[in-house]
Amino acid sequence: MAQKLKGIIPPLLTPLTDDYNLDVSAVHRLIDHLVEGGVHGVFILGTTGEATGLKYEVRQAMITETCLAVKDRIPVMVGITDTSLGESLALADLAKIHGAMAVVAAPPYYFNLGQQELLEYYEDLANCLPLPLYLYNMPGLTKVHIDTNTAIKLSENPNIIGLKDSSANTVYFQSLIHGIQREDFSFFVGPEEITAETVLMGGDGGVNGGANLFPRLYVELYQASLDRDFPRMVQLQKQVMEVARMLYNVGKYGSSYLKGLKGAASLLGLCSPNLSPPFKQFKELEMEVIANNLKVVQTNLEKMGLSGHHKQSV
Which domains does the chain possess? Predict the structure, then answer.
């Protein structure tokens, strides 16, 4: 690791064809859109990337094509979360071969690991990996929380170089920053609604789904937080909250966030709205709501010079 990673690292959508294979041209289109938007890196095969629902061959293709599309312009982080240690290591080996910078792993889901088991699992994983590891705390989905003391102990392993927290618990996040004393350890937050405040608290940036659509909005919010430009920060934060309110909360689905994000991405010409099973894309009436809401968001961002709309015709 030449230097510590900071900034906005979008959790990349996984563009899918109608038969649930990888839409390669859309991967390249998305990557160009994000690089042009000024993001500091990209994270593939996470929650927003629907990793757990993808065939292994699609996960492998996503690693290969993302690294090809990035062309070393920004760092690539690869999600290797799995219930099988062997499958995680296989994905990590592929990530290393294609030039990824690091891997990211949430706790194995299904069995409810205790903290000692979690500690041992991550130690075993980190010691076998060909790349540095970011811990991924996602208790809402894995049902396992990486306790503060567990994270502090794991931070003593030199191959564990950071943590992404999607718990939305800022007290927990602050306790990590206070407890982990390594200067080269990165602290990223998942929920975009709290990225600005966690940067003010000493965090290193956000892994924000909305940055797939409007990368410049999130990059500018990060920079304003870093600069302590509070009037600008408040203005940008309001727009981030509008993206969340208008695009992630349509319908009464546990998957509304993903449906909304991919639906909006399809309207922007970035990728299809196809979701990996068990989920399905929004139906026509819901897409009308997304289309209307997206216009409102775009109009507001255009007024701020931040629309970042993808210019390439699809």
Answer: 7-303 (3.20.20.70)
